[in-house]
Amino acid sequence: MKLPDKNGHFGQFGGRYVSETLMPALLELEQAYARYKTDREFKAEFAYYLKQYVGRPNPLYFAEKLTKRLGGAKIYLKREDLNHTGAHKINNTIGQGLLAKRMGKRRVIAETGAGQHGVATATVAALMGMECEVFMGAEDIQRQSLNVFRMKLLGATVTSVSSGTATLKDAMNEAMRNWVTTIRDTFYVIGTVAGPHPYPVMVRDFQSIIGREARRQHLRQEGRLPDVLVAAVGGGSNALGLFYPFLKDASVRMVGVEASGYGIPSGRHAAPLCAGSVGVLHGNKTYLLQDDDGQIAHAHSISAGLDYPGVGPEHAWLKDSGRAEYVSITDDEALEGFQALTREEGIIPALESAHAIAHVLKLAPTLSREQSIVVCLSGRGDKDMHTVAQAMGVSL
Amino acid sequence: MTRIGKKFSELKLAKRKALITFITAGDGSLACTERLVPAMAAAGADIIELGVPFSDPMADGLAIQLSSERSLANGTNLTAILSTVKKIRQGCDVPLLLMGYYNPVFVYGIERFCLDAADAGVDGVLLVDLPPEEAAGFSRFAAAAGLDFISLLTPTSDASRIAKVKKIGRGFIYYVSVAGVTGARTTVAQDIGPMVAAIREKASLPVAVGFGISTPEQAAAVAKLADGVVVGSALVKLFEKFAGDELIREITATVRALKAGMEQID
Asked: What does pTM read for this prediction?
């Protein structure tokens, strides 16, 4: 069976749960994407920008000191933090930006949580000469003021969203509302592998450069495939980008790391795959944090980029089919991961990526020295200095 | 045929148009909803839509977002809404439909929901984020339970969309007059007439027009073109200022004015 089906379903997950106004736009996008993803000129232009503008391929770095300290499997870092704009998000916004231009759209909009996707979208809008509006929760604007300033410098309008919980999910609601109103000239750049079909597939495809490079690099450096892949999962785009090219390699374990905030028993977390239930939000059916009445719950994570009550539908499918496993890491554990990588390797990770590192701290010692782990270092930590300082009780 | 179908047939014979009014169930309180439904019916509402509140109302403008938040803060859920409908049905026969988002219904269980809703006396259901591509299962259970599944069409819908909706839609078609979210606007969209005519002909169902209609003048203008007129945000906004008896007076006065506007057409 080919997944997803023609309406974007991965088993029961995915689909297109949107208002009728958006359906023609999604169908138009699906057609355009189907046409250009095999178009030689489009592919060449995408490859050009990934190389010359983003700086790909980025290294698969052997973290020798961290490996020695943990005394188990070899740890390799896929260095998405070295990309232009400092995270994996740019891979996707370049792809969607090129598509928007070909579709004749003059304006792009985006939602953002930590601000990384907003910055990546504003960057591409500046590069490609398009108008850009980014929707961001009022609470996140407070937490991530530096990224707000970056977006404004890049020429984007940042619109504060104070409805609901004033975080990422509400920013996405507002972006959808804006898109319904401006559908004829606007392209909605979704930042993760969620939302209505074809976004989960399209974003996965643009991000799968991560896994294609990592697979090739690991084969070259180790002469074999890695044993385990580890990546943080909020919406899940860096994880799926890493996992997807390995799906058919049955020997490769895949571990997605969700954020369990104050701990799953506290109820204040962002781990729908580990502790959520199936529902429909933002255009797709997936695992969600919700109450017994189907009202969406507040998510919590120290990392604004993981602070989302849903997850991409393909992850929901990979969980139920057993192909990937999903675990969770608390705020405190993530901070330990953050410190460990900073001190051992001189690499300051984003708090999102620190969740993946924190899981590696637990996993690596349980594996043999002949085995290896590839962990996606999805972004760099510059944006998180204020949050980390606050957590450590330091005032800047 | 449900009360909705019968109402449109009756109105057609009398050469009149349906006034469809929307309030969020549980805004004010469910006790308030229970009083408002018969009061709106007596003031001239032909069909009443009760909004089922959702935490993430993506298709709604500010007025209905705030209304949903107020209702959820009152502890409203589907079970309580259905028991309110049951109470309303003891003395009121106005056609009733529930309007909202898919998730609360999905979590309740779609088959169980359709059976319970029909049992409570609901006539139809409109789910804004359940397009025809995803609606096959739900529309089957709705039909089996005797509920009308009301479908939406919009200015962006072409002939292929109308054909898709025709296959599953029952009762009437809700034509969203603008590409946008719910909420009052100063002018009514221009291209309503031809779209409504095309839909009515192709889908062979009555067509009601909603989104952005708030004044008696706008209602009258749209009533000339369509089989029904939906007014929501203009009523919902009254909950921001009024409560109790005063709220009921304001709502019924507004409904009466809308109805009077619509009755002036030849």
From this structure: 0.96
